[in-house]
Amino acid sequence: MLFPVYNRKTQLIENCEINFFIKNNILITIHENKLFQLADLFELAENDNNIKQKYFQNNPIVLLCGIFGYLLNSYFPMLTHMGEDVSGLEKSIFAGEKRANTKSILKLRWNIVNFRRTIESQKNIIEHLITDASHLFSVSRLKIYYGELIDKIDDISRILENEKESISALEQTNNSLASFQLNDIMKALAIVSAVLMPATFISQLFGMNAKIPFSSTSGFTFFLVLFICMLSMFGCILFFKKKKWL
């Protein structure tokens, strides 16, 4: 079975594989020691007689149910942390940090999708365990306990679905704000180019080698060209304001 594990370094949820071997009154787990919750459970069982009596009853299927239940309960702090990340992302979006938000959105989306895919695989395995491993479930009450695990997985899936919808809405909001900002930048650049275009044309016209009226080398010609350029720029600005483009 695969279990989600949060990597603090990459801030991504990764999969941790645990292999379970069941035979008679023996349960063997093989894993890479990435799931500290499993070690915590066995440590609690060593120090707490109530937990030891509850799970260690010479029935590996009871212990397996306890392991599943304990690991599923450990998901809720992760879900709470993801919810806090979504809330922080919402505040950051309206603060205007577009580029940083895009990276955070991608990480959260990946975490939610990977988390959900992992627990759905757990649900399928537990359902097959209930239906196909009838020789292991000698007590009908155990089927009820495993059915409760499936209900808990469904609750977690609903929480992840809500978080997924929130992330999608925040991503659309972030993209819209980034698009508005880009449009404002392009608008400002277009207006600047349009305002300078007449002045550029006039200055290049008087800079030609051909004989042009008022193109003498006197100081009056320079101020005349400067005045015409400023007048054309001022006229463009008035025109844009009249059209409410500014």
Protein architecture, described:
The protein is mainly α and 246 residues long. It folds into two domains: 2-183, Methane Monooxygenase Hydroxylase, Chain G, domain 1 (Up-down Bundle); 187-242. Helix content is 73%, strand content 9%. It is built from seven helices and four strands; from the N terminus they run E-E-E-E-H-H-H-H-H-H-H. The protein has helices at residues 36-47, 49-55, 60-73, 75-95, 98-132, 140-206, 219-242; strands spanning 2-7, 12-17, 19-23, 26-30. The strands form two sheets. It has a two-stranded antiparallel ribbon with strand order 1-2. A hairpin with a 4-residue loop joins strand 1 (2-7) and strand 2 (12-17). Helix 4 (75-95) runs antiparallel to helix 5 (98-132), helix 4 runs parallel beside helix 6 (140-206) and helix 5 runs antiparallel to helix 6 (140-206). The two termini are 61 Å apart. The model has no long low-confidence stretch (mean pLDDT 82).
How would you summarize the topology of this molecule?
Blueprint: E1 2-7, E2 12-17, E3 19-23, E4 26-30, H1 36-47, H2 49-55, H3 60-73, H4 75-95, H5 98-132, H6 140-206, H7 219-242
* Helix proportion: over 70%
Shape: rod-shaped
Order of helices and strands: EEEEHHHHHHH
Give the termini distance in whole angstroms. 61 Å
* CATH architecture assignment name of the largest domain: Up-down Bundle
Number of strands: 4
CATH T-level fold name of the largest domain: Methane Monooxygenase Hydroxylase, Chain G, domain 1
Low-confidence stretches: none
Report mean pLDDT, rounded to a whole number: 82
Name the beta content range.
5-15%
Number of domains: 2
What's the level 1 CATH class of the largest domain?
A: Mainly Alpha
CATH H-level name of the largest domain... which superfamily?
Answer: Magnesium transport protein CorA, transmembrane region
From the alpha carbons, calculate the radius of gyration and give it in angstroms.
Answer: 34 Å
Largest sheet: 2 strands, antiparallel
Q: How many helical stretches?
A: 7
Neighbour order of strands in the largest sheet: 1-2
